[in-house]
Amino acid sequence: MKKPRGRVTLPSEQNFLNETKELMERWGADAIRDSDGTKLDDEIKKLEAKIYTTYFVARGHNDFAAEHMDECQQLYLMSEFNTATAEMLEIDLMKGYFTEQVRPDYLHDPKKYWEVVDRTSGEVVNTADWEVDKETNRVVIAKAVPWHEYTVSFLVYMIWDPTQMYNHITNNWGDKPHEIPFDVRQPHANQYMSSYLKQWLKDNPDTDVVRFTTLFYHFTLVFNNHGKEKFVDWFGYGASVSAAALDAFENEKGYRLRPEDFVDQGYYNSSFRVPTPAYLDYIDFVQHFVAEEAKKLVDLVHESGKEAMMFLGDNWIGTEPYGKYFASIGLDAVVGSVGSGATLRMIADIPDVRYTEGRFLPYFFPDTFYEGNNPVIEANQNWLTARRAILRNPVDRIGYGGYLSLAYKFPEFVSYIEKVTDEFRDIYDKIKGVKPYCGLKVAILNAWGKLRTWQTHMVAHALWYKQIYSYLGVLEALSGAPVDVCFLSFDDVMNDGVPEDVDVIINAGDAGTAFSGGEYWANETLVATIRAWIHNGGGFIGVGEPSAYQYQGHYFQLANVLGVDKELGFSLSTDKYFVTPVNEHFIAADLTRFDFGESMKNIYALSEETEIIEYSDGEVHLSSHSFGAGRAVYIAGLPYSEENTRLLMRALYYAAHKESEFHQWHASNMYCEVHAYPTIKKMAIVNNSMAEQTTLVYDGDGYSRKVTLEPSEIRWEDFSDER
């Protein structure tokens, strides 16, 4: 019997033809790609497979870039904070920055495009009171106020692409030239990007898929003076700004942006910051420009008879797939790195493309594939995590990246990926385009809404951070859960109310962040709208510091809904008598332990009507509270785990008043899950662990039977309407 083939992309490289053929057969690959730093031999390009070729629009063209250094991409940077001890203060602009990556822009008038700020008073220093010493990269302030802090916000040229810089350092590329990124907003660069692509398409007839990596502007990634990452924001728009962009923005929007709109006191508008109206205007401005210019390139690709694919990473700013201009680009596909179930859904749920592709981990790089390490461990964890999400909505293809020659040295890894690719094709063939059973509709409420679908609480894609794992667990749990998920912004709610089909709203995050909401919660329309919706029967779950904003006697502005608030020290004189947990509760019925991650301190119950589910160290960590016909649940934190996924699911059903439906298409063992597909009368019983598991499996009517699953097993069964 011939091995199934398709839906898998294999990385390859020069002088690796026979091994490539072998792995194509074993993994069933029907597409071959190059990677950053590799090329494909002509013999490989002639294999029976689609050929993906990496294409850099705005980097990797050093001959052109070197002749037009005035058209390099730019950034706004902020100097370190400097304390004045006298009226004269010198500020070293480049202190703490990597001079091989950026250099100050002296071509455009600093007095027009830069800003010196007194960070103690918040006032902008008059341009007449400071000068620039270009030889030493210093700003000299003549009338500083002693003991005030000062910063300089200044434009720089980015003279080394940050992704190539990262790969250069990680893979020891030595003397390989630094790739200089250019700005397609500039006249020569704009003309060059089109003319070069036209010729490239003629010169690469063997290419079937042009893999744009990505398009124009890199996410914000700035290195320090030691060549280490200094600042990274996967959503940052810093590298899209320039003197030309500022002038064009003023012409289009009717007002001028300040440097402060970009450096943002040194926070650089990270996605955790509540976005200002000016910053949202700038995002819209860039997205519109990028979509228009990207469409021109995609049209050229299509005219040549090839497909256009975008990598969801690197230079992806302005191309966000959930933005309002994305569809107009006309891309055939999007490919992205899969680090979790949430990132799998972020890719799989993208609208307006013919297919999506997930680049699975680990990358075939020497930081993982070295003697003594076992890459199967990471690959297994990556697959089991992503598989939950695939069973809700699969990507159309999977693949890997890096140096195939490294992976080939690990036979156990090669064999494991053979099993993964077979299992993926089997899942896809069964359920693609089939709506799975969903018991609830859940809305994630934050300042970003739809634009950041499946992207909340991320810093550098799916990397772990202490301050976020207690919130990312919410998304990760939902990514493979039998619920519909949508993303709402506070503006959506204020303008249009809560969608009628939403059962439960989740607001999760630290106070002051875009994900909790910050000053949005002082808006009476927002608060009243949500209170009314819950009172009329809606469900609400708050995680961490939901609705947190100190205002009018509350820290949680939905404290009366949640039944809890946070003690900030202002009300220590008011006794807190309500500390007794309930004996049992639907939400905690399956749990033997609690894990709230970093948790939250000083949460207390407001009245005896609050049902305290977990109370320890003098604090409430889990509770529920009725509000009119609705219910609210408070959770101090929710790292991802099987236990916390079960806790969240029970909390959702309880908040929605749907406890009686909880055992439909359900597994009693929390390490197992049931995914049902009513229209095709199939169900998948899944073991999400690496150990054998026994579970009760409940059907759509709540009837159960016992099933034992092998480690990581997925068992497909047919069912009928007569049970």
TrEMBL record:
UniProt keyword Chaperone, yes or no: no
- Assigned EC number: 2.4.1.211
What sequence ranges are listed for the domain Lacto-N-biose phosphorylase-like N-terminal TIM barrel?
6-438
Q: Which organism is it from?
A: Neobacillus paridis
Q: Which EC class heads this enzyme's classification? A: transferase
Recorded GO molecular functions are:
1,3-beta-galactosyl-N-acetylhexosamine phosphorylase activity
The keyword Signal belongs to this UniProt entry's keyword annotation: no
Lacto-N-biose phosphorylase central domain span: 441-659
Q: Where is the Lacto-N-biose phosphorylase C-terminal domain?
A: 665-716
Top-level taxon in the UniProt lineage? Bacteria
Q: Which InterPro entries match?
A: Class_I_gatase-like (IPR029062), Glyco_hydro_b (IPR013780), Ig-like_fold (IPR013783), Lact_bio_phlase-like_N (IPR035080), Lacto-N-biose_phosphorylase (IPR012711), LBP_C (IPR035356), LBP_M (IPR035363)
* The protein's name in its UniProt record: 1,3-beta-galactosyl-N-acetylhexosamine phosphorylase
List UniProt keywords, sorted A-Z. Answer: Glycosyltransferase, Transferase
